[in-house]
Predict the 3D structure of the following.
Amino acid sequence: MENERMPDDKPNAASDILEKITAFMLARKGIAIRFLYTVMYYLIFVILTTLVNICALVQFVFLFATTKPHEQLRKFSNKINTYTYKVMRYMTVTENTRPYPFSDLPPDVEPIEEEIKF
């Protein structure tokens, strides 16, 4: 009779397993959601890098034509660079705050240098 199990042992073991599975799934749910956001931000990142390249090309065309940088384009490029930086930090799991459009646009990381020298 020592080897006989009580009828209550099986439901407790089953509920323990169910609780462990539930905890496992809940822990992975957050990771899966973050992964989906990361995929979305990767697509945004590809667009941003293309935009940065276009800004650089237009800036150099403007420089060759006028020998001065286009100030509004410099400011815009700085904002795009800062936003790209925030997107990369989120994608590489070094920051928890989701970038724009889920939070405000970030302030500039570094100010624009006043004088550009060649």
